[in-house]
Amino acid sequence: MTTASDLLAALHARANPKRADALQGFFQTGPGQYGEGDRFLGLRVPDVRAVAKEAKALTLADVEALLDSEWHEARLAALAVMVNRFPKAGQADREAMVALYLRRTDRINNWDLVDVSAPHIVGAYLLDRDDALDVLERLAASENLWERRIAAVATFAFIRQRDVVPTLVVAEALIADLHDLVHKAVGWMLREAALRESAAVEAFLDRHAATMPRTMLRYTLERFPDPLRRRYMTMRVS
User: Fold this and answer.
1) Which residue segments constitute the domains of the chain, with CATH numbers given?
2) pLDDT tens per residue, range 137-160
3) pTM summary value
4) Between 74 and which of 69, 111, 115, 173 could a Cys-Cys bridge form, CB atoms 3.0 to 4.6 Å apart?
5) What is the 3-state secondary structure (H, E, C) of the chain?
């Protein structure tokens, strides 16, 4: 599989129209919803990943062509190709992939696309960079919902290294965000951070639990001991 057309043909060969209809609803593709206008072929994620695994020869131009596709699974496959390639790529190739990713966030336009890619591309790239917090804060300040979610989820790469500072910085920047999908992402990252560095997250909650969005707080507290969970939920101002 050497071209974007080859990969698209492989995806179409696995299409499942009945499942596609269900995905249209699950990913809220109706008018005014966050996934408005998105179209699905009906593939499961493991099937998309299997196709992407066979597309090692794709150029970044092919990857960008797939990102431009109307089909959700094509964009997912494009991101999977980069995720597969990133760990063994040289510095120049990594920089090219990150540049493409950040230039085309308009096409990384649903929560699953962000979640499968942001830690492995943006987060992995920023791990050893002095400007990591600057990049994450710029994304967190974006008017683009998906860039704000990328800022949060990319910090998972740091959490895995037991560095929770980027997560706390981004959470602080997004504490007043109005979108539920950002609340969920930040809460998820805070929950994961608490599993590694609970004291730092508890200090964050001591400052913010009273006013942070309820969904964000609930996601953060999912694995907290019951007494601590009740304490922080009680702090929240209704």
Assistant:
1) 1-108 (1.25.10.90), 118-238 (1.25.10.90)
2) 999 999 999 999 999 999 999 999
3) 0.95
4) 69
5) CCCHHHHHHHHHHCCCHHHHHHHHHHCCCCCCCCCCCCECCCCCHHHHHHHHHCCCCCCHHHHHHHHCCCEHHHHHHHHHHHHHHHHHCCHHHHHHHHHHHHHCHHHCCCHHHHHHHCHHHHHHHHCCCCCHHHHHHHHHCCCCHHHHHHHHHHCHHHHCCCCCHHHHHHHHHCCCCCCHHHHHHHHHHHHHHHHHCHHHHHHHHHHHCCCCCHHHHHHHCCCCCHHHHHHHHHHCCC
